[in-house]
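Deviations from the work plan: none for this task. Representative record:
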Amino acid sequence: MSMIGQVHVKNNQYKIKGDFHHLELSQPIRLADDNWRLIGITNPRQLTHMHSYGGEAPFFEGLSQGKMMATRCDNQKCENKGSIYQPFRIYCPDCLSKMTEIDMTDIAKKTAKVHTFMVCERSGAFNSLDKPIKFINVEFDGVCTILMSYLSVGDPKMGMKVIPIFKRLDPTYTILDLSFVPAGTKADQLPKGFSF
Amino acid sequence: MIKFSDKQLAIPKLMRPVYLVTAGQSKFDRAFPDKRTEELCIDALTQAAEMINMTPAELKSYIHTCYYGHFADHFGDQLLGEAVIHDRLGLDPLGNCGVKTGGATGGTTMWEAVKAVASGYSDCTLAMGWERMDEVPTDEGNFYISCAADKDWEGPLGHIYTGYYAVMAQKYWQVFGKEEDSFRRTLAEISVKHHGYARMNPYAHGAMKITVDDVLKSPVVAHPLRALDCCLMSVGAACVIICDEATAVKLTKNSPHKPLRIWVTAGSHTLRPADRRDMAIPLLPNETKEQYKDFGKKFPGGERYPGFTGFLAARMAAYYAYNQVGIKDPTEDLDVIELHDAFTISDVQTYEDIGLRPYGYGRDYVESGDCYHTNPKSGKPGKLPSNLSGGLIGCMHSVGATGIMQVFELACHLWNRWAEIHGDEKRWKKFNRQRPSDWIDLQVKGAKRALAISHAGVGSHVTATILMNPDNLIKKDA
C-alpha cells in the first residue's frame, strides 16, 4: 500500500515518511511508417521534491491565517529606506540588509487595485485553477512593487478595486491560498475554503 | 525611483577585435522523433565548415574553447547535456561550458564566446545552441517552461508562462494600443509577414501563406493574443565560430565570404515582473529626456517605467551596444535586424526598447512599411527589414539555438549569400520541404551592418549582437 510522501524537520534534518517516487516500466516507441521498428523509449517518472520556503515562510504561513505579510527596508543608510515589498522579499535589493516583516493586510484591503490582467484559456500540466484563469497584477498604495495573483469572482478590468481573500480552510500553503475578488463581493460568493 | 551608477552604465570595451567567421544550422522542426540532439548539432557544425570550404575536422582543429547553450535540462532529461554534445562533436579535451539564460540563451552563449576571444584566452571559440522540446506532450511542455518563472510566486498560478507574459501584453494593448482594431490588425500583419518570409526559408518550420483575417480568426490563447500571434516550439541546433583577426584571416582563406566584426552586449531585469520598480527611462543616443516629459499625459496608464510595458533588459543591451559601436540611430545605421518575436505584441514592445521608434509609437515601424524587405506601400526596399528568416513566429524557437539562428541569418545577408543558402533546391529536398513556386530572393542588397536581439521570458535577460562588415565600421576603435 503506497503512502503519500510526508516530511518534517527535526534537529535541522529532513525526516521523511512514505513514498517519494513510483516505479513504472519504460515502453518502446516504434515507427509505424517503417515496419514498426524501434525508434525510442518512454521514461515514466513520478517523484516528490522537498522545498524550503526559508525566510519567506512567514508569508505563506500568514496566508493560511488570513494575513498578507510584506517586508520593509528600515536601514537608515539605504537610499530607498521605507520601501515596502510585495512580493515579500527577505533582503533589500539595494542595501542587502534584512528587512522588517510587516502585516500589510489592511493596506491591501483598502488600496488594492488591478494594474493589469490577463484571461488565459490554457494551462500547463499540474494546474489546479479553474479555466479560464484570470491573472491579475495588483498594486497597493505605498508598495513599490506589483503582486501577481488571480481573480476568483467576476471579470478583471484595469484600475478595478479588489479585496484579498485567503484560503484558511484546507490551505495549500502555496501562493494559491491568496486570491482577490472585486470590491463589494459578498462572503457567500467566495470560492470554497476562502474568506476575507 | 531606482538609479544606476556611472560604473554600472560604463560602456563595454573589447580588448581586441573579434570576428564572426562562419555559422551553420540544422533543419528546424516541431519534432525529430528519428534524430538525437547530437545529430542536429553535427549538422550545424558541418554546415559551418562547408560555408568556408573546410572539412569539419579542419575547422575543429582551430577551436580552443566551446560554449554550449541549451536552456532546459529537464526537457532533454539529461543533466550535463553539454558534455554529451561536446563528446559527440569530438571536441574533448577542450574546455567547455554550458550557458543558460532562458530564451536569450543563444545570445548569451555568443556573449561568452566573444569575451573569451576578446580577452585573449582563446583565438577561436565555438558557440553552439540547441533545444529538445519534442519529447514531452504540450501541456507538460508548458509546465516545464513555466518552471522558468518563480516557482513559489508564479508557477502554481496555472503553470502557464504565456499567462505571466500576457499580462504585460494586455497592459501594452490597452495603454499604447488603446485597444484599437487598427492596432490589432497591425499585430496580425506581423504574423502574416513572419509566416510569409518563413516560406522562403528551407530551415523554417512555420511557413504559411496567410492573411490578417486568418490571424484574427485563429483560436484565442490569451486575449488579445491568438494562436497565430505566438512563436513556434521547435527542435534544432545552430552554431557560430568566433575568432581573433589572425585566425579569422586563416580560416577564410578559401571562403567565399570575409569575416565580420561581432559585438555582444547584455542586460537583465527582474525574473518576476512583480518586482519591477519605477525608474527614469535610460536614453538611447537617438532620444532626449524632453520627448518623454509628458509621457503619462499622452498615454494615461503608462506613467511607470518600465512598468509592465517595456523590457528594461532590451533597453540596456541596446544602450551598451549602440554606445560601444557608435550607432546614433539604429534605423539609419543598421541595414537588417532579427528580433525576438515571441509574440506579435512583444515584437512591437521591442521596437521601442531598442529605439527603432520612441516608447508608445512602436506600431509605426510596421505601419510605415519600414520593417519589410520591400515596403508594401512604396514598392521600394524597406528602410530596416526585420525577421526575414521568419523569426520565432515563422522560422523556429528552439530556445538555445534561437539567438544563434538569428546571427546565421543576418550573416548570410552581410555575406551576400542569402539566396545561395536559402534558394538551394538541394537543401529544400534534403529537408524534405518543397520550395514554393513563388519563392523570392530576400537578400538585403548592400547590407553592411546588422543587429540581433535575443530575449528571455518576461525580459529577465536580453542580448544585443551587432555584426558589421569590417570596412563599414562606425567607430574605428570599437
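Residues 57-64 of chain A form the longest helix (8 residues).
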